[in-house]
Amino acid sequence: MSELTTVTYEEALQKYEPVFGIETHVELGTRTKMFCGCITTFGAEPNTHTCPVCLGLPGSLPVINERAIEYTIRIGLALNCSIASWCRFARKNYFYPDMPKNFQISQYDEPLCTDGYLDVAIGGKTVRVGIERVHMEEDTGKSLHVGGATGRIQGAEYSLVDYNRAGIPLIEIVTRPVPGTGFLAPEVARAYVTELRDVLRTLGVSDVRMEEGSLRCDVNTSISLAGSDVYGTRTETKNVNSLRSVERAVRSEVARQSEVLDSGNRVIQETRHFHEDTGVTTSGRSKEEAQDYRYFPEPDLVPVAPAADWVEQIRASLPELPSARRARLIDSWSLSELEFEALRNAGALDAVEATVAAGASPADARKWWLGELARRANDSGIDVSELPITPADVARVSALIAAGTLNDRLARQVIEGVLDGEGTPDEVVAARGLAVVSDDSALLTAIDEAIAANPDVAAKIRDGRVQAAGVLVGAVMKKTRGQADAAKVKDLILERLA
Amino acid sequence: MSDLIKKTAAELAAAIAAGEVSAAEVTQAHLDRIGAVDGEVKAFLHVAADDALAQARAVDRKRAAGDPLGALAGVPVAVKDLFATAGMPTTCGSKILEGWVPPYESTITQRLRKAGAVLIGKTNMDEFAMGSSTENSGFWTSRNPWDLSKVPGGSSGGSAAAVAAHEAPLALGTDTGGSIRQPAAVCGVVGTKPTYGGNSRYGVVAFASSLDTPGPFGRTVLDAALLHEVMSGHDPCDSTSIDAPVPPVVEAARHGDVAGLRIGIVSEFSGDGYQPGVMTRFTEAVEVLEALGAKVTEISCPHFKYALPAYYLIAPSEVSSNLARFDGMRYGLRVGGGSAEEVMAASREAGFGAEVKRRIMLGTYALSSGYYDAYYGKAQQVRTLIIRDFDNAFSQVDVLISPPTPTTAFNIGERADDPMAMYLADLCTIPSNLAGNAAISVPIGLAPEDGLPVGLQVMAPPLADERLYRVAAAVEAAFTERWGHPLLAEAKGLSGE
């Protein structure tokens, strides 16, 4: 079967109804690993953050990281799940060199969190995505396959394994199938992962960096004939490692499956790999010859039984979640849904909120962060939050404009000065001498000079041709290097020549 | 033969503490003994002569400096080769780990070192503790010091033989289905399976995690208690270890007393398959206990007959997972080239012995999709029923007794090709592993027909380990008085005796 698809997504949607589901793996941001005391910092020299436990040396035993349990409960509560009063870890048995024990400690039929949901706002409406379960497991090591064309183990000359990642606490968040989103399915899938990422970031449980692999998605997709209430055979697309890829993976699988069905074949239940470069998926191993993981309760660990009052303490300590914040900000800043999404998509919510808190109006704060600052961040390829300017700086600039000390053009220069490390807005104003000239005597001198230099223009104004004043205003502004208030200059000229 | 090797651990510790003998002399005497007899007994896989002498001299320096000495200061201890010992090879009796030197130390051997014990070497065992004779060792078969043509039991056969042959006064073993009690019984020494979780499994290479229990061997009840106490207690590195006070086993061993004690005989553990001489000695022990004031009754534990089959589903299931890590990728034997999968398969094929492979296959099957409920799930239900049998029994009596194993030591080779016959050696010991409670084997004489040692098993509820020692000490005192000497004085198996 060709891996190239000729049916487009749009064509597929005329006939089929897509259903998707997403399994998200999230590395928790605990200081130490799931079952040992090794630190979890990303990017260390390979195999330096290891010990007998995470290397699975004979005789070593795991001990549960209580902070990881707490983080998982936090996630479960934020996703409206029930928290089990008693649950166990299980062993998932399979052989692979990056798994030190050749089994992964995971959870099987007794997950810590079950039956929740996450509301996803898209295009002004809300889609409720059901959460089937949130469970804990340990990450595997990381294989680097050297030689060979694909970077996969097949065809590689040799492989290197880094066990720094082995044993990092991993949470798997599994949605229920999401039907009924029609044409929007790929966007809803993306919006779900975006919302989930924001929730996790707000909870402070993970740095949720898809590019570093601390948030990874497997996307399940199926299609069925429009109107059918039986879901089609699903495929599981792995290696979906950016928000954009989530959307593209659903889109490309819907189109591919549609072509399979249209050509009279059946969709095979299988694992597929997503390719960032081409945007298509290719077949991995078939689930029909899937391994038997021989799950059984992990005998080296005791059951996890979080006390009800501990769970309630955690619930009480949850921060404001993105959906609540959204409602609050839309209301208090009088935003439209689209305006809010623009702010969120620009990653500027925190900055704007802090700028407002520092005294700026919501409109001014949004204007700066979505305008000048967004442009500067974009030019440098960084997030607005990473710019070397604080919300308090922006609020101060805004205040200087309101006080008439700066005009817009000068304000942009002040911002530029702050970004260039010249100091606070006030320091930049002072150092660059950027304050609006409001000293009347200095202005009058400049005006008198301009009148003297342009006697014919002055004559026209005296005759009542007021629009000719523009020439004199321009001359004065040039003289004052733009630091005068143009409206005021005009008033003074007219007064002088009245 | 030096007198030092005839002394008990309690006597040696006292003599060293009093300065009557140096730890180095004691260690040297035992090294000499190993040199003299281990060619026949073959109890040790690794003798750590230089290391042991260095440990002993460190004890002597501490004593000279007036520093406080630990409970076992200067006492040599032989260590089953399942305990990770930093700087000493740890093979688990398997070719797949030949030459592996762990970079870390088990909690229990750390505790022993802290108590001043001298780790004198690593003892032979059935591969990964699977077996009842040491014949499944990847290296060689150890021999019973009473009769070199007989097995020393297993899987901790090397440890039991080392203690019986006076190569060490104390030894560490592990007991998953009887691997301490059965070899103790057939070698005529004392061996205890403590309460599961009463000590730490950290650094003890896993056979079946939910059953494995490290425990002590000694020639006397008090010696076993001394080691039991030193090795016990909660360990934050083992979440299945119990955070509770260590039962006062040494105190109990010093005060053997069964007056008024309610003792139950497990009625299921007699009859067909039990060697007559074993039952003769058992009956005699019951008479002794009654004479000492115990109230002995019979108690039925109807589900114990399912213990062996349940054990042979649960233990292999855990084995199939626990032993998956031995794949030639990171440590141990590595065979062949080609893909990772090929290397894994070739290394496991070459490194594991037949019994280990048999159990991996059994366990893999028992856990597989579609069979889990019928095998592993059902076996866990049986386990619950066995716990209930014990609960019921212990609501009526303080301890239970039975033979530890149906026969005396069997001939080397006799059961090697018959796994079912081999499995029967653990018939009486397995229930305590499934229930996680405590049990001991203490010598009660020789079987008339073959002159080989017979033990008595005493079982107590979880965390009531001290009851074992109270009963065993009373039995030991009564029989020693009757014999006029310790049982081991009758062992004539070694040349030069």
Characterize the structure shown:
The complex is a heterodimer of chains A (498) and B (497). Chain A has 498 residues and is an alpha+beta fold. Helix content of chain A is 38%, strand content 19%. Chain B has 497 residues and is an alpha/beta fold. Chain B has a domain at 3-260 and 439-490: Amidase signature (AS) enzymes (Alpha-Beta Complex). Chain B has an eleven-stranded mixed β-sheet, sandwiched between helices. The longest helix of chain B is centred in the C-terminal third of the chain and has 22 residues, at 373-394. Chain B starts with 8 loop residues before the first helix and ends in a 14-residue tail after the last helix. In chain B, 63% of the residues are buried. Chain A binds chain B through residues 52, 55-64, 91, 93, 95-97, 100-103, 153, 159, 292, 294-296, 299-302, and chain B through 82-84, 90, 92, 97, 100, 102-104, 106, 201-206, 208-210, 236-240, 317-318, 320-321, 324-327, 329-331, 339-341, 344, 364, 367-369, 372, 376.
